[in-house]
Specification:
- The complex is a heterodimer.
- By secondary structure, chain A is mostly beta strands.
- Chain A is built from no helices and eleven strands.
- In chain A, strand 4 and strand 5 form a beta hairpin.
- Chain B is globular.
- Chain B contains no helices and eleven strands.
- In chain B, a hairpin with a 6-residue loop joins strand 7 and strand 8.
- Chain B is 0% helix and 48% strand.
- In chain B, strands 2, 4, 5, 6, 9, 10 and 11 form a seven-stranded mixed sheet that branches.
- Chain B is mainly β.
Chain lengths: 109, 115
């Protein structure tokens, strides 16, 4: 079983739409949770950390449900520039990051 | 501040040859990580240095892979001899702290193709 499972998509949404991505993780001892963004042929870049209380950064809202081992990312008012692959990432132990395969988003004009 | 730098950006080698990838972390970052993404799969951990010491190399696929970090600055990852299944994108990342909420900064990767 994979450490982190994500729906690969693709998600094709019109500009201005709200879109949500979900992922689940298998290790209940996981300690830190992140969403990374990866543009085509580029490196992953940290979008936001995810906290148990939920957190928001502009149009982006991340939530964590430890009981269900479930993480979500909500993007409101989608922009063309939001088109990318969104990676769900979990840290278990001191240093090891586990990545999902990513969910591909395309925002259409 | 300069980011994590990797080179070469691309490398095409024949099966059986040797390739050495280099990573320069952000200055002052003690923690340096190597990750790899093979086609169609998720990014996977290879190993972690704290300064010049290997903290965790549990992700290294086999003994054809050798990583070093002399002096605790830049790191090299050598593949010898390369096999077809080693093709993929090799990412290096660095971080300053084990802060639980802190993500890592990744380099732009080395795209390795073994033919």
């Amino acid at each position: 079983r994979k450490e982190v499972e994500q729906d690969p998509g693709p998600f094709n949404v019109p500009e201005g739409a709200t879109v949500a991505f979900n992922c689940t993780y298998s290790n209940s001892a996981s300690q830190s949770f992140f969403w990374y963004r990866q543009d085509c042929r580029k490196e992953p870049k940290l979008l936001m950390s995810v906290y148990s209380s939920g957190n928001e950064d502009g149009r982006f809202t991340a939530q964590l449900n430890r009981a269900s081992q479930y993480i979500s990312l909500l993007i409101r008012d989608s922009k063309l520039s939001d088109s990318a692959t969104y990676l769900c990432v979990v840290r278990t132990g001191a240093n090891n990051l586990f990545f999902g395969t990513g969910t591909r988003l395309t925002v259409i004009p | 501040e300069a980011g994590v730098t990797q080179f070469p950006s691309h490398s095409v080698i024949e099966k059986g040859q040797t390739v050495t990838l280099r990573c320069d972390p952000i200055s002052g970052h003690d923690n340096l990580y190597w990750y790899r993404r093979v086609m169609g799969k998720e990014i996977k951990f290879l190993l972690h240095f704290v300064k010049e010491s290997k903290q965790d190399e549990s992700g290294m696929p086999n003994n054809r892979f050798l990583a070093e970090r002399t002096g605790g600055t830049y790191s090299t990852l050598k593949v010898q001899p390369a096999e077809l299944e080693d093709s993929g994108v090799y990412f290096c990342a660095s971080s300053q702290t084990f802060d639980r909420g802190y993500g890592y900064t990744f380099g732009s990767g080395t795209r390795l193709t073994v033919v």
